[in-house]
């Protein structure tokens, strides 16, 4: 009778170990993907900064109309804003997954 109890206890411990391995696998995959996304959004932010700080559009020819420059600048600044939000959320997701892996 005690042998069966210990055997079932061993099975329960093995099952909990499998759950922990599953959680570590899921959180590890999330951390890896979010770290890659952080690199991508950082590069997009660098491109957005280069486009917004380059000067006026049409530097080597006649200046484009003001509405076109405003549209261009607005699009660049909105992309920088959304990339900044994406960077913040990917950092948050990566840290949350790391915290979930250890708790």
Structure write-up:
The chain is mainly alpha-helical. The protein is built from 2 helices and no strands. α1 packs antiparallel against α2 (66-102). The relative contact order is 0.13. The model has no long low-confidence stretch (mean pLDDT 84).
Count the E strands. 0
Could you give the distance between the termini?
35 Å
Report on the biggest sheet.
none
In percent, how much strand structure appears in the residues? under 5%
The residue fraction in helices comes out at over 70%
Produce a short descriptive summary.
The protein is rod-shaped and about 95 Å long.
Write the layout of secondary structure elements.
Elements: H1 2-52, H2 66-102
Helix pairs in contact: 1-2
Q: What key attributes describe this structure?
A:
about 85% helix; mainly alpha; rod-shaped; about 100 residues; 2 helices
């Amino acid at each position: 009778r005690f042998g069966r109890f210990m055997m079932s206890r061993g099975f329960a411990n093995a099952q909990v170990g499998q759950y922990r391995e599953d959680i570590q696998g899921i959180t590890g995959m999330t951390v890896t993907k979010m770290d890659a996304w952080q690199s991508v959004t950082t590069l997009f932010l660098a491109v957005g900064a280069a486009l917004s700080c380059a000067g006026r559009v049409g530097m080597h020819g006649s200046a484009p109309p003001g509405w076109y420059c405003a549209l261009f600048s607005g699009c660049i600044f909105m992309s920088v804003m959304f990339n900044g939000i994406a960077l913040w959320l990917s950092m948050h997701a990566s840290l949350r997954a790391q915290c979930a892996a250890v708790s």
